[in-house]
Structure formats: C-alpha cells, structure tokens
Amino acid sequence: MCLNNAEEAQQLLILGNISIPLSYLVIHEITAAEKIYREKEAITNKIKRHILRSLAYVSYGLDRLDVNALKSYLVMLKQHENGGYEFDPGLVLSAGELSYASIWKEQLISYIDDKSAEKYLDPIGHRDFPGVALRNYELTLAIEYPGFGSLIVKSNNLKKNRRLF
Description:
By secondary structure, the chain is mainly α. 67% of the residues lie in helices and 0% in strands. It is built from 7 helices and no strands.
C-alpha cells in the first residue's frame, strides 16, 4: 500500500486500518518539523505541534496494540543520532508541553469516531483486547527492543507511555 498524502492516511484510519497510515503520519509530521527547522534554524511552536502530533499517532497506535508508528518514530530518532536530522525530535518538548500529546490523541480519536459515524461505521471506542492480542503486542515490542530499546529508555517523549513499560 502506497500513501500519497496525510489525507489518504486519515481516511484509512477512519476505515480501521492503522499500521501503515500511522507510520506514514509519524514520518510526515517529523519530516515537516525538520523542514521548518532547516528554514528557521530554531524550534518554533509549529515544530512543536508537528512533534506532538507524531507522538499522538504513536500513542494511538500503542493503545491499539500496534507498534508500527512507534517503530517509525524510533527510526526518525535514530536518523538524528546518525546525523540525518539537524534537531532531535526527542528534545523539542518540555515536560509541560509533552502533556499536550494526549490532547492531540483524544482529538484524533474524536475525529475518527465522528468521521466513522458519517460512514455508518462503529466508533473505535476503548476496547478490551483478547489475551492473544496482548501477547502478540508484547512479542512484537520485544522484537523491537534489541534495535531500539536504548532509544525508548532515553526518550523523554516515550517514558510516560504505559504501553511501553
């Protein structure tokens, strides 16, 4: 599946497909933030909003037991570590600003639910997942730890996510 823009990704979210759209949106937001940073050479509120949205997508994915958005976020952090990005997305937000990621996530959920209702689809709600889904999530997360564990542990942006620890 190839996505051409954020609007297509959001339409897929409405239809219940999360892995690829969330990964796309995380990359889209961090790339947009990097572009602004290269132009302004300073951290702006717009950059912070892009990072907050990327974290909202990561958190939403983890809540749905999907690690692909997290993996995309971690790949972007690793690119900074390797010199590919000029600013560190993990250090853009203060502890106080980081709390806004949950607000963005709730707005995302509300948007998905509203648009789903327009299409006569059930709202995503807060489901209980079967045990096998939780075990699969834990296994998938464990597979990512050898490559990204140190980034997860070091990241101020990810420390408070209950699905990671």
